[in-house]
Specification:
The protein is mostly helical. The chain has 12 helices and no strands. The radius of gyration is 26 Å and the shape is elongated. The termini are far apart. Bound molecules: heme C. The site of heme C (HEC) has 28 residues, from helix 5 and helix 6.
């Protein structure tokens, strides 16, 4: 009697253990099955969309080439995505976001009366001017470029759309902000050799020369591009880590 009872207890214990193990496997299975691909989805998604150019991550637009031929009407149309929060006309009111008249080439936090985030203040300390590259990166992924910004906007992945938009924004009070000279090292053809290092060096050197010339010609940004590009490379790669930023960007407000 006690023998069979013990046997039952042992069986019960064994079964219980088995259930616990199976249960755990299912729970972990569930966690891995859902959570992992979901995370990876986000990460692979963003860069891949952005990978419409790796050009976008590796090569910023060659402003001297793309701005003169940008489609201003398309840029104005793209601004519809900003209008919930921004005006861009002269004397336009601040809304959820600051008025953007003259922001291209202007100082970061260019509207003194607007309550910017501390994050934007920290960004200003590092990069005080909204040059073309800085704006481009910000609009690509605001929360990645300025972590903690209160601009809750997921970003525009398509480089061409951003170029048109920035060209149009420039037409709103920033016409005096110089367009840099075309930079061969930034042109799409230069992208492939850039990976192979050697030929790219020569081209890059040529590009820097041109840029310095442009700087001498009076562009205030002229000095920045070299370091700007380096900074761009680091800021682009580094922020891949914080997933919080990515998901908060995606969560609707
Ligand atoms: C949901 C509202 C919202 C949308 C949509 C939005 N913004 Fe913003 N934007 C903000 C806020 C808020 C700030 C201030 C950010 C801070 O202080 O961190 C800001 C700041 C900016 C700045 C910096 C201005 C300065 O004075 O330094 C630029 C440039 C900008 N936005 C451009 C855009 C563009 C271009 C779009 C559309 C592609 C856009 N924003 C869409 C809310 C928005």
């Amino acid at each position: 009697m006690s023998g069979s009872l013990n046997g039952n207890k042992i069986m019960a214990a064994g079964l219980a253990t088995a259930f616990v193990i199976i249960g755990l496997q299912q729970v972990t299975g569930a966690i891995y099955a859902t959570a992992k691909p979901e995370k990876m989805g986000y990460f692979i998604d963003a860069p891949e969309e952005a990978a419409g150019g790796p050009a976008e991550v590796v090569l910023p637009p060659d402003w001297g080439t793309v701005l003169p031929t940008a489609d201003l009407a398309a840029g104005e149309a793209a601004f519809a995505r900003c209008q919930a929060c921004h005006t861009a006309n002269a004397g336009g009111a601040d809304g959820i976001g600051p008025n953007l008249f003259g922001v291209v080439g202007g100082p970061v936090m260019h509207r003194p009366g607007f309550a910017y985030s501390d994050a934007m203040g920290a960004h200003k300390a590092e990069a005080p001017t909204w040059g073309y590259d800085e704006l481009d990166q910000f609009i690509t992924a605001p929360a990645r470029y300025v972590p903690g910004t209160k601009m809750s906007f997921a970003g525009i992945r398509d480089q061409n759309t951003r170029v048109n938009l920035i060209a149009w924004l420039r037409s709103q009070g920033s016409g005096g902000y110089a367009v840099p000279a075309p930079d061969p090292s930034r042109q799409p053809g230069a992208a492939a050799p850039a990976e192979g290092a050697a030929p790219a060096e020569g081209e890059a050197a040529a590009g820097t020369g041109a840029e310095t010339a442009a700087a001498d010609a009076g562009g205030p940004t002229g000095a920045a591009p070299a370091t700007g590009a380096a900074a761009a490379a680091t800021t682009q790669t580094a922020p891949a880590a914080p997933s919080a930023a990515t998901s908060s960007t995606n969560s609707p407000r």
